[in-house]
Design brief:
The complex is a heterotetramer, with two copies of chain A (327 residues) and two copies of chain B (323 residues). Chain A contains eleven helices and eight strands. Chain A is an alpha/beta fold. In chain A, the strands form two sheets. Chain A has a six-stranded parallel beta sheet with strand order 2-1-3-4-8-7, with helices on both faces. A two-stranded antiparallel sheet of chain A has the order 5-6. Chain B has two domains: 181 residues, Thiamin diphosphate (ThDP)-binding fold, Pyr/PP domains (Rossmann fold, 3-Layer(aba) Sandwich), CATH 3.40.50; 128 residues, Rossmann fold (3-Layer(aba) Sandwich). The N and C termini of chain B lie far apart (41 Å). Classes of the chains: A alpha/beta (327), B alpha/beta (323). The interface between C and D is large, with 49 and 53 residues. The structure holds thiamine diphosphate (2 copies) and magnesium ion (2 copies).
Chain lengths: 327, 323, 323, 327
């Protein structure tokens, strides 16, 4: 899917929707409406949006602890997501998952994941399922640079390659792993290097440049759809907020953050790119932001107005208790 | 009726389920090459070549892939060569498979069956002889199946494959070749239904997996003592049919709980605690447990044989509660 | 005497042990950057810069490295950021650390301490709130420590570091900031010695970790009912001091076993089964368990609060056994 | 340690000791004297011997399920090992470990390991211990090609590289993983390829040529001893026997096995090499074989004459019960 003005505007809207959703979620956490951990994606929007722009509704996406952006970009309804963060019964997971487990199976968004690298094996498995069934669905797995050190990264990608599964492994290399700088705990700079161990293409792109992400993701996804196997796609990116709530951020300077925000912001860069091509007028820009803002406002209202799940809900959904062996 | 071994019963059930449902597939180490070490998947590669996947040695990957395939609507039957290696995939079992339905508020279903050959077989020491059913009992969202006969193995396996939720299917190496009658045709055994394997009046022996056969043997010996024991086989450990177990204990007033695994914080602890809590008024002797002592499996055959509970252990325990 | 939190008590014990013994070192995620999420290792990097290792996110590697270092005579203190992630290193804990001494016929010693922040803290749902003590109780060769007060945390931690065998050290997030008196100077608390945290005559409440505080609160409420409960804190779950527990139950004739984890095949199952077996003649009511129902931890705060056992749960259970 | 006639003869003896020990163990299994699994190393002797020839007594060795050769090459007493296989109380592990867990801590042989890749993390840990203590001991970890797919391989080697630990990771690539041909389940031919993911040297040698193994191992071990970090050393080799007892060996042809035995036998190749250099007379050759044979015979006699452990032994060595907290 090559980029044109219309697609670009849609992607631009998606980036704003993510940005504003998260800034609002952050505020709501401050107000005590959102409990638990909140890992914000702000600054990394170009990755989720650039990749998901290629995906069909029936393609699979699996995420991380930092997956609001992945879910929104893949089309999860914002109201349900905000309600989930609030722990309300109208939430995507009926309030039982929260930020770290947002999922929308109707959109084949199989969920955020609280375990670093936890989605890599399962994404390989959805790829296996579609391959066995002979469909041309693609599975995309997002994970952070930290995940690349874990065994399941190694085992999962190896199997994806072995069976030439239609999976795109997208590493969001934001240079940090919780409160640690990547270079302190990693031995190779680029995660894409590791692709050689699995005999698959390893591609590294500027994750602030949604156009570059979009192009590289397109190739990887097409390759997967054609049945030629997985790609390891690394996007170099940056997160604006702390790792999660209450991060003292002693591991980086204010200046570093400001520098990325001022000079490498994916939304600003994309706006400039579009403006240059006359794909976006000032009015359109305004409208898009307003639309995003209104969606977020509506989502908060929805979440706010929703009830907590009844206490009995805590006991449901452990197993499917309706099912009978003789059925 | 035909006479089958447990190994054959699982083998047949797997073939039948793969025939019935295209979404069932097999994944594991050496499952093509050899049908796994116990040849349970033998013949699958010939009959369903597109639905069997021989893997690298990578248990976390294997179970992870199974979870994903299940989430996408397939029904993976995963072989872990020995139970002991499930330690390499605990995150995938416990944090992924077990919790997906719950964390997604009921959206997700993970119909995965994980086959676990376990326990003492040949003498292969501490890293190849564990059982560990209680680990998985303790994890909400998992179902734990522990068949003791070919009939149960076949019926429970078919239920396992069709279940919309994850199943840990324990296959006790020591009884793979145990023979028994298996009814012809399709018999599904529901989870959570214990079976009284022998009726008796004097004491209830709740026995798990390979201890069922030993308990039945003990029953014969104990007749000479004048004791008529009832043997209850839970068949699934989670869900656990506490009703049948407790009904039996209420009748007999005495309970001996037997497992081949080590007792401390084991399967029998849950069963014994449940009996103690629910049958208090009817108990005429302390609920007694039989199991391995709290030691790893030693290699030397005489040592291994000495720590695994035998028929005599059951006999001794029953005599104690009858005394 | 000084007043410390549990977090501070562990922090201080770690500093003191590192000061005392050069072979003690720290390894884990973010242990330098932040002292771990609960700042327990804060200050170590400044004081012992050569004996603290910040790792990639790789729990199997971390524990594996710890096992090897321990085999070579070091005393690693491993931090697993949340207990939930120990699933990623179960093989290293269960098949390597736990069994080395036994498999080598007593040659090997694996003096590793694995710190496990666990349970409900902030509301972070099913993959970040588990406890799972019973898994490790069930593994021979492991020692399971469950401190409920700053004094115990400090004394048990020092013992853990000095122990020649692996220790799983449970740190309950919900009581990290609980304060208490800690004696000055060096006090080691031996493993396998329960402590009676409150003496009483009417019923024994065996409480684990965060349930100890809740049981003591329940004790106050129950005074109004005219019930005088005894609260026994096992402090270590493996080895388990069955003598102290059973002595108390024999005295009171009633037992309520409380854990914050889910009851089914949990820690309390072992304790309850032991009591039922050993105190039969003295029991005047069924041994009753208090714990979480068999569900994963839900996210929504009201749901989470509703499933974690509270003071009222203990009160209710005691009233039931007294009825 | 460069190769000269004397060292060569010692290595040659070691190779024969391993070969004959194992052939005898195999026979004893047939006789019912050895129970359990028996994974024979025959055909792979050049690897263990070529590597261990460089090691000091205080260097560490960690093994696999196929570790008789590693233990003997590192100096484990043969009598104790045979007794261990017999499950006797005089065994290296007092009969409690068996073939898959042979260990001799007095020689820093930390043990065979029944878990594929189970030794890689611990070997990294012994490397960490010696580095912290500032000694120049080296740790060597042997593992099969199958282990390279497992997560602990990835995690362990990554940490070895991160901290530049004195560890040599030796992959014995014998082309099979139990009953499966490596090429059916692997995505890269050479395991050494994977070294790039860890930014360490990856070296691949002919594992039937003990001279080549010895040279490459020497470089890797020296590098480790100098504090320059780990090496991933792959030795291409072959096993003569089935994976373990009762292997139907349907996965390979008789001809393939014969071809390796006849044309690539590490002992025969080494003998030819030595003969060419006049490092080995016929008499010496004879004496060496006789010595090996006598040692094996003595070991069987020792094992045979030893008693099984008393049943009480099953309950000991779970924990150190002598130790007291206040000690
Ligand atoms: C297996 C596991 N170990 C540790 C953690 C704790 N943890 C959560 S996020 C995180 C950092 C992840 O870094 P990265 O993968 O780079 O993702 P990022 O947060 O940078 O997006 C850690 C250590 C976890 N959730 N799972
Ligand atoms: C984690 C784990 N998975 C599976 C096994 C069963 N198993 C034992 S040896 C083996 C094959 C190992 O192949 P490789 O590593 O190449 O070593 P080789 O036997 O060829 O020397 C397997 C699958 C095991 N012991 N551990
Ligand atoms: Mg990162
Ligand atoms: Mg091999």
């Amino acid at each position: 899917m090559s980029l044109d003005a219309e697609l670009a505007r849609r992607m631009y809207l998606d980036m704003w929707r993510i940005r504003m959703f998260e800034e609002e979620a952050n505020r709501q956490t401050g107000l005590g409406n959102v409990a638990g951990a909140l890992h914000l994606y702000c600054g990394e929007e170009a990755v989720g949006v650039g990749v998901c722009a290629h995906l069909r509704d029936d393609d699979y996406v699996l995420g991380t602890h930092r997956s609001h952006g992945h879910c929104l970009a893949k089309g999860a309804p914002m109201n349900d997501m905000m309600a989930e963060l609030f722990g309300k019964e109208t939430g995507s997971c009926a309030g039982k998952g929260g930020s770290m487990h947002v999922a929308d199976l109707s959109k084949n968004i199989l969920g955020a994941n609280g375990i670093v690298a936890g989605g890599i094996g399962p994404a390989t498995g959805t790829g296996m399922a579609t391959k066995i069934r002979g469909t041309d669905q693609v599975s995309v797995c997002f994970f952070g640079d930290g995940a690349a050190a874990r065994g399941p990264f190694h085992e999962g990608i190896l199997m994806g390659s072995l069976w030439k599964l239609p999976v795109v492994y997208v590493c969001e290399n934001n240079g940090y792993q919780q409160w640690v700088r990547r270079e302190n705990v990693a031995v190779v700079d680029s995660v894409a290097t590791m692709a050689a161990s699995y005999d698959i293409p390893g591609v590294s792109v500027d994750g602030q440049d949604v156009v570059e992400v979009h192009e590289a993701a397109g190739e990887a996804i097409d390759r997967a759809r054609r049945g030629e196997g997985p790609t390891l796609l690394e996007a170099r990116t940056y997160r604006y907020f702390g790792h999660s709530m209450g991060d003292r951020e002693e591991y980086r300077t204010r200046e570093e953050v400001e520098d990325w925000r001022d000079n490498r912001d994916p939304i600003a860069l994309f706006r400039a790119y579009m403006a240059e091509r006359q794909w976006l007028t000032g009015r359109e820009d305004e409208e898009i932001r307003t639309a995003a803002k209104e969606a977020v406002t509506a989502a908060v209202e929805f979440a706010d107005a929703s009830a907590y799940p009844p206490l009995a809900a805590a006991h449901a959904d452990v197993l499917d208790t309706e099912w009978r062996a003789d059925a | 009726m035909s006479t089958l071994t447990i190994r054959d019963a699982i083998h047949d059930a797997l073939h039948e389920e793969m025939e019935r449902d295209e979404s069932v597939f097999v994944i594991g180490e050496d499952v093509v090459a050899h049908g796994g070490p116990y040849t349970v998947t033998e013949g699958i590669a010939e009959r369903f070549p597109d639905r069997i996947f021989e893997t690298p040695i990578a248990e976390a990957g294997i179970v992870g892939v199974g979870v994903g395939a299940a989430l996408a609507g397939m029904r993976p039957v995963v072989e872990i060569m020995y139970l002991d290696f499930i330690t390499c995939a605990m995150d995938e079992v416990v944090n992924q498979a077990a919790k997906m339905r719950y964390m997604t508020g009921g959206q997700a279903s993970v119909p995965i069956v994980i086959r676990l050959p376990c326990g003492l077989g040949r003498y292969i020491a501490a890293q190849h002889s564990q059982i560990m059913e209680s680990w998985f009992m303790h994890v909400p969202g998992l179902q734990v199946v522990a068949p003791s006969t070919p009939k149960d193995a076949k019926g429970l396996f078919k239920t396992a494959v069709r279940s919309p939720d994850p199943v840990l299917f324990f296959e006790y190496k020591s009884i793979y070749t145990a023979e028994g009658e298996v009814p012809d045709g399709e018999r599904l055994i529901p989870f959570g239904e214990a079976e009284v394997k022998r009726e008796g009046e004097d004491a209830t022996v709740v026995a798990v997996g390979p201890m069922v056969g030993k308990a039945l043997e003990a029953g014969v010996t104990l007749e000479d003592d004048g004791y008529d024991i009832e043997v209850v086989d839970p068949r699934t450990l989670s869900p656990l049919d506490t009703e049948t177990i407790c009904a039996s204990v209420r009748k007999t007033g005495r309970a001996v709980v037997c497992e081949e695994d080590s007792s401390f914080a084991g399967t029998g602890a849950e069963i014994a605690a449940t009996i103690a809590e629910n049958c208090f008024a009817d108990l005429r002797a302390p609920v007694t447990r039989v199991g391995m002592p709290h030691v790893p499996m030693p290699f030397a055959p005489p040592l291994a044989d000495s720590v695994v509970p035998q028929v005599a252990s059951v006999v001794g325990a029953v005599r104690r509660v009858m005394a």
